[in-house]
Write a structure and sequence with these properties.
Helix content is 34%, strand content 20%. The protein has 2 domains: 175 residues, Spore Coat Polysaccharide Biosynthesis Protein SpsA, Chain A, CATH 3.90.550; 37 residues, no CATH class. The chain contains 7 helices and 9 strands. The chain is α/β, with parallel strands linked by helices. Strands 3-2-1-4-6-5-7 form a 7-stranded mixed sheet, with helices on both faces. Strands 8-9 form a two-stranded antiparallel sheet.
Length: 230
Amino acid sequence: MTTRSDGLRTIVPFDPDDPCTRLAPVLDPPERREFAAAMRDDVLDAVRAGGGEPELLSPEPIDADVPVTVDERSLSKAVNGVLAAAAERLLTGGRPCPNDTGQPVAVVMADLALATPRALAALFDADGDVVIAPGRGAGTNALVVRDPEFRVDYHGASYLDHRRAARNVEADVRTIDSYQLATDIDEPADLSELLVHGDGRAARWLRDAGFEVTVGEGRTAVERADDVRV
C-alpha cells in the first residue's frame, strides 16, 4: 500500500522497562514486557504497510530492526525534542541527521494493536497542519504534525490540549475518526477488543497465554485459564 505521504517519518514511543502498568491485575511484569513488545511490533508492521517509516523513541536502547532514538526525558519532552529538531532543519534548510528527515512527523502510540495499514494511511494522507486521531477519554493516540511551531502535551485530556495548542500557533486541525486508532490497549477491559478484532502478534500472544472472550448479559469480558502462563 502506498500513500501520498509514503515514507513519512513516524515516531513510535516505547518504554521497554515497565510497560502497560494498568494491565498489572492480569499480567505479571515479564508478561507485560512480552505483550507490550508484541503490540509494538504490530504497530511497526502497520506503520510500514500504511506508508510510514517507523522509528522507535525510547528512554533506553532497544535491539530493533528500525532506527531507535534514545531520550530519557518524559514522553512530551522527548516527542517535542524530535519535533523541534525536525522543524529547525526544515526552517533553516540544514542537512538532516541520519534519523531526522525534517517535517512532517507522525507520532503513533505503541499500544495501538488494532491499528491497520488502511487506518494509518488515512491518518498520514489527511490534510491539515496537525492531524489528530483521538483515543477514548480525550487522549491522543496518533497525530501528524506539519506545522513547525506545534508542540505536544500528553498529560490529561491531551486531545483538547492539542487542539488548543494548534489554534495558538494558527495551525489547521483535522480529526480522524477511526475505531482502530481510537482503541489503545492499556487496561484489562481493553483485552476483549483485541481478542475480538485482532489477528496480529498481540492477539495471538493473549490466546496462547490462555485468555478468551466470554459473554454475559450482552457484554463481553475476558477470562484466563488458570493453568496457562507464558
